[in-house]
Amino acid sequence: MDLDAFRGLLTPEGQELLARAHEVYDEVGGDPLRTATVLRRHAGAEAAAAALTQVELRRKAVAKLGADLAARMYFTPDGLEQATRLRVAEHRAARVAMAEPGAVLDLGCGIGGDLVAFARAGLTAAGVDRDPLRVAVAGANLAALDLGGAVQVADAEGLDTAGFGVVFADPARRGAAGRVFDVDGWSPPWSFVERLLARPSCVKVAPGIPHDIVPHGVEAEFVSEDGDVKEASLWSPALATARRRATVIKAGGLATLTDEDDPGEQGLRPVGRFLYEPDGAVIRAGLVTAVAAGVNGGLVDPHIAYVTSDEAFSTPFARSYEVLAELPFREKPLRAALRERGIGSVTIKKRGVDVVPEELRKRLALVGDDDATLVMTRVAGEGTTLLVRPF
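The structure corresponding to this sequence follows.
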């Protein structure tokens, strides 16, 4: 979809075509070819393709942005892929709003996912991007949601940011060859990020960012949603409230853990009655020992992110399991132990051992009626299999 085709969708005729595209798409059961055929009776091929693209992207966006916003917003394929998930963007916007910045500038605003979140949080928001199509889409999204704000085509580097209380940046981490892991290959590059963090700002980065490159005084917040690590945010010293933070977002709400909750080394412990699997955000933030302290437990191995305790806890920062038995680690005796228990189906979780769950499951060739969960990991350096039950 090019810029002219998108602008055509914003005209009265384009809006009628888009509404018709939604109707036809539903009538034909989501068949894109049949939808396109019907739309071409009412519009040119380019306009029909642009309308169909929006319909398909809006359906895809529901998982990331929710049905309400997805139904009203506009997207490009790569813009939707790179857009921040709604609950994550809302959390970040709420943190920025607490600083009462007056105005926020979004550098590299893309299609406006974070820009929308800032505006919905009551902030005066402006966004810039080098891509005219993305800028047009971001502006249309603000208008579609009846939100204030401004967007324009501009390069983040060299832009005067003095008039904004907080600057948010999401450096591009993809190039022609795919994902860029070298921070100096980002656009804008790491040197720009370092300069930006000297003023009140927040920078969205990949969750795999090395801890040792985070500047002094900057908070690194690692965020997961429903158990999946989505991103990290670097908060400048003016906005930071900790050195490291793990934020866990689930349907029931949000929980956060920081280095201030971490007493440090908890020591190793034999496997107790309960096993805890820390959330990925906790692991990336280096706060596994904080989880251990929270459940009155310890680590099973110095290099493995599993925690054990003799006490049962429900914590948002880890999945909890009751340990039913320790089974053999070697494949042949493990098969015998599972068959003896009548187990015919297993969920295999592994960490720190050379096991491919899908392949092992096939080789075990189990035939029992019961199912079970196995944790295959290292305990004090030795391969161990634990039969567990989630709780």
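The radius of gyration is 25 Å.
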